[in-house]
Design brief:
DNA binding; 374 residues; 57% helix; six-stranded mixed β-sheet; flat; Nucleotidyltransferase, domain 5; transposase activity; alpha/beta; Transposase, IS4 family protein; Transposase_11
């Protein structure tokens, strides 16, 4: 019943558990689905994010049925990423000193509320105090996670520094580092959703977001893979998505369509070596006189094969089909399924929401293509 409720709600673009709980009280369709049972937003919210593994299994079972009916063939798959606003404000990002201060205050608040809860004999007031203590503990946990995320980000920054220095002369490096130190901003992490990252959006603005990845079989545009990352770049997302599709279906796609943001020679080499032909634009060279389709020093036989392929008109025609598939799915999820802003926090829960969206989209498309029995 809860599964049906959420699938129907998402089909109507409803993503708020509180809104859905109100509809279950006053809307006849939702009341009929509930079958006379009362519903509260806590139950709805917990069900939505608490069964990601079951949703993943259901997605795999649905794809098996679609493949059996010939609606999914995996001859050609298109992948694209869509950046979705996180459930966190830009003002929630704090530097290390502020995070440590906030954590200290949060711990003191938890201790104070725990003491009040133990000493207050009033039952009604006790419930209110328990709610306050729970909220304070959740904030303390978020701040602890935020500091852990900050540690990880700083480790990544330090790992990149030697690589950058090795490509320049000592004199150039010194000057560059002095400029960078003057301009460098200390890393910040959100206290609301520590896993969210500030990304550049389609409108040119910068906002806390997650990068959701969807892969579609181009025959009927069914979604065959769902992923999420808090990295704005798509360069490292092709291999994990292809591996996911293979694990779900047992079939390796013949062709894989992606835009220029996914182009990474190591990933293309592995895809081509394992039998999947990549259709992605060849980057323009810095020197206009260089032939982008000529073999480069870093090319392997597989990446050179990709370059030669993308020079042909047939490959360019195939690549032009990418937008009609990938962008259509993204537009549907944004316009009709409520994927403008995420209602949950944390990468794991965001992926679960992505699975809900994909299941709803696939089921709606399935009912249109295959008449359901009366």
């Amino acid at each position: 019943m809860l599964l049906t409720l959420w699938l129907y709600a998402i089909s109507e673009g409803i993503g708020s558990a509180r809104h859905l709980a109100r509809l279950c009280e006053r809307d006849n369709v939702y009341r009929w689905i509930c079958g006379g049972l009362s519903m509260n937003h806590h139950t709805l919210a917990e069900f939505r994010t608490g069964h990601g593994d079951k949703l993943d299994e259901l997605m795999t079972q649905l794809l098996a049925t679609l493949m059996h009916q010939g609606l999914v063939t995996l001859r050609q798959v298109s992948q694209d990423g869509v950046r979705v606003r996180a459930s966190a404000g830009a003002g929630s990002f704090r530097r290390r000193a502020t995070l440590n201060k906030c954590l200290k205050e949060a711990k003191a608040r938890v201790r104070e509320l725990s003491r009040q809860l133990e000493s207050d004999p009033g039952a009604e007031n006790k419930r209110e105090q328990a709610a306050k203590e729970r909220a304070a503990r959740e904030r303390q946990e978020r701040l602890t996670r935020a500091l852990a995320e900050l540690d990880e980000l700083e480790k990544q920054d330090k790992a990149k520094e030697p690589k950058k220095k090795s490509t320049r002369s000592k004199k150039q490096t010194t000057k560059t580092n002095e400029k960078k130190k003057a301009k460098k901003k200390e890393r910040r992490v959100s206290t609301t959703d520590p896993e969210a990252r500030v990304m550049k959006m389609g409108d040119g603005g910068w906002r806390p977001s997650f990068n959701l990845q969807f892969a579609q079989d181009t025959k009927e545009n069914f979604i065959v893979g769902v992923g999420v990352t808090n990295v704005g770049s798509d360069k490292s997302q092709m291999l994990p998505m292809c591996a996911q599709v293979l694990a779900r279906t047992g079939v390796r796609p013949r062709e894989w369509l992606v835009d220029g943001g996914f182009v990474k020679l190591a990933a293309i080499h592995e895809m081509e070596a394992k039998g999947t032909r990549v259709y992605a634009p060849v980057p323009k060279p810095r020197d206009e006189e260089d032939d982008p389709y000529a073999r480069k020093p870093k090319d392997t036989d597989e990446t050179w094969r990709w370059r030669r392929r993308m020079k042909t008109e047939s490959a360019k025609r195939k690549y032009r089909q990418r937008g009609a598939h990938a962008e259509l799915v993204n537009a549907d999820l944004r316009a009709w399924r409520g994927l403008q802003q995420l209602p949950v926090r944390g990468e794991s829960k965001v992926r679960t929401v992505g699975l809900w969206m994909a299941l709803t989209y696939n089921l709606l498309k399935w009912t249109k293509l295959v008449p359901m029995p009366a």
